[in-house]
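Why predict the complex rather than its parts? Because the way molecules touch one another can change local conformation, and only a joint prediction can capture that. The input here totals 975 residues.
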Amino acid sequence: MILALLIPLQLIAIHDPTTKGARSFGMGNIGVVGTGFHTVYNNQAAMAYFDHIAAGIDYDQGFFADHALSHQSAAFIFPTRAGAFGFNINYFGYAAYNEQKAGVAYGKQLGKKLALGVQLNYFRSYIGADYGSAQAVSFEIAIYSMLTKEIELGAHIFNPIGMKIGQNHPEAIPVAFRFGLLYHVDKNLILLSEIEKILDQKESYKLGLEYQISEHFMARTGLATAPTLFTFGFGLYSPKLLLDIGAGFHQTLGFTPRISLRFNIK
Amino acid sequence: MIRPCIHINLRAFSVLIAFLLLIHPDIWGQELVIKNAIEHLSEKSETNFDYSDILDEFISLKDHPANLNDAEETKKLLPLFLLNELQYQNLRQYIDSNGLLLSPNELLLIDGFNSQTITNLKAFTTTKEVKKRDYPKRSNIFKYGRHQIFLRYQRTLQTADGYKNRSDSVFNSQPNSKYLGNADKYYFKYQFNYSHRIRAGLVAEKDAGELFFENINNPVIDSLIGDKITKGFDFYAANIYIQDIGIVKQAVIGDYHLLFGQGLNMWTALSFGKSATALNIRKYDEGIKPNTSTDENKFLRGAAVKIGLQPWELTCFYSKKKQDASDFLSPDDQETHLIKSLNGTGYHRTVNEILKKSAVEIQLLGSRLQYTHRLFTVGITGSHSQLDKEVLAQPAPYQYYQFKGKENTLIGSDYSFRLYKLHFYGEYSYQLNGGWAYLGGLSAQLNSRFALALMYRNYQKNYINLFGAAFGENTQNTAEEGFYMGCNFLISPKLQLNAYADIFRFSWLKYRIDAPSYGSDYLAEIHYQLQPKTTMYFKIRYKTKMLNHFTEQQAHAELQKQEKYSIRYHISYQVHPQLWLKNRIEYQVFRTLSEGKQGGFLIYQDIIFKNKKETLSLSTRLALFDVDDYDSRIYAYEADLLYVFSVPAYYNRGLRAYGMLTYKISKTVQFWIKLAHSWYENKEEISSGLNRIEGSCKTEVRCQLRIKI
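Output of the joint prediction:
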């Protein structure tokens, strides 16, 4: 049981390379494929296909009904002719213990089929008054290809240099690789899959789908292994304001929600 | 313990396929669907069920094809999985806007139909004008009615320990050391049909080891069970059933089943759960169904009627039936009878089993009201069951929430509606002074090539229903919460993927699981149609559950994960107009941390021959198996006599062969005979207890005669 409790903590601690955003969560927590605003967190290369100036906030409650263990993020994307720039900040924890992460991202298309992306990260952990804080810097690299009209592929590596955080007892920032495939069945339906391997954890397999019911309404569902998770969600889209809600069901921990709100500035 | 298997119910879908195989050898797809479902069910419940009721539906439909232009008749195709919800809706819309269908081939113009569906439908449907239903004339009933008689005989040739003679002194001191009857199994069935609207039937059965007309010449035994013994068959079921006569939609007197909503409130027939046909998890309300199966405990006995006045339908039912149970006298007064468990195997071969026979009487009373609108359907069901003896609470912690007392009252409702392309359905059930249970699902054809099914269920641990059989991993709908997701994806016209994932958790202990636990079940099957008559599939399945594990240091068990995965390749192909071949290779592994890995392997060859006139067919199989352990056993469907279903579990090491011959002597008489032989290389005795057979061989013979007038 104690073990089971630790798993979700890993899920929500932000030094972990977890997928973010309610849209991804609704599709089995798949982030490495799919274009859209959440690419600013999950695949910076795919950000190159995003053509709005947009800002968004995300809230993830974790599996505990305690706000102190929630995870909050905010991000901003600014596309230019020279590629898309993105910024994101993430906060997890409470006054006596917290983790923070800030990233600057850049994604650029190279020809029609390929895009590359990179993100520089700054990590900070803070524990109680006597312990103080620790910092680290690392990066992530992403690649995205629009292989055919139907198929998109994405890959992403997080912290490839194996950076650690802290001086006396350094704690590893995980190294993670994700690879995914997206298939457009038709203009309303996409199927997605992803494999995620965090170096010191069991690999996770994920499947998901998104279905556009109407112009303003999306429905999603998906599942993931390790930890076994069943998710679903929906999106309410207007041209300026977009709301995504996702929910996950964990075998031992029950339900958890995630909410994302996005504003298209231009 | 209440053996959960009596509550596992199977649904109409499996028999269908087996039957199709017999009449239409070229319907490969459909045959597979049913076999898959039966195999899955047998694997889960470890019991061979009697699927006769479902098969009856197919036979009746074959004789009286459903008119596709008639909405009511077309609806009957849904529970048999000949049509899905979406196809049904599209068909109705097409007829509304384009007029009546002139030929079944016109279905090709309708969204959701392909040539495969139409081939499958052809044997069971017609396209006629819609006629107003009138009252059948009495003279016509007997003139055009059809009679059928089935006679069946089954026996294992080797003598098991239970049939060996005992000296009187041994028998007197150990009355349970012997089966009272002989090793023959007899079965008799009579059926009358007038179109599909009037049906009557009688089934009688004597299982191997049960008494028939013999006398017991032993005063000790006679004193124990003398009053419980009746001459003749051990089990009878009979009914008269009518349908679509005036405002009476359905009515039955005798033995019957009720199938309402999603099966949470009331579903007494077999019900299929998960299978390789990942989308088919929704149940279709069939109301009242006559019972013709030989499952001795799982049906209702009494009367039921469904009256319909559009858009309302009202069903009322009453049942009073004796059931097997272990009863004992109250320790307080030595007079009151109490029930330890409602255990029913249907076998009455030994003194103990006969003592359990019909030990408890259960009365059931209730009704259902349903309202049907073009866009939605809602129903309310209420039922009350009353036992004549009290069921006593059992001491084991896992039995804490099991049924106790003398009565149970349930009330609930079910719904279905459509929103865009999404079909929603669900059911809620509340037990008076107990818990509640809910099930909600969604099925959607999101694209002509991709369909999805989702289902959520949440059954409370203190919810008990003696007559439910909704979707679930547990055999009873209690103490379970889970999500199911299934999909069907037509990757290319010849390549199809079926897959599901089911994750679940149990909020209470179970037998051999001393804590709340969880598990998951994944399946993927890729189906490839190489040529019209050559199909193959590749199936993988992975399942985990928790189970007790005892270590020397600990007094109580801790749970450990058990994993089971299996890989199967199956091909069926036609090499000559009269010759079909099938092969299967299956590998299965069962693994726990403490016991390690146990493997199982099965390979078989089937040869099926049919003569040109299709009056004679021969079906044979040779299978080789090498299975380490009972936990890694492999199930495989076998061809069998009409109305017999066998899905043997292969374990140990050896060979199994069978041959079955079917011969249609004339239009009225048909004959089946099957010989099956198993040989175990690593066993000197087979089975255990009274069923123990010395030696390494087991041979079974079965034959059946059908007379149709």
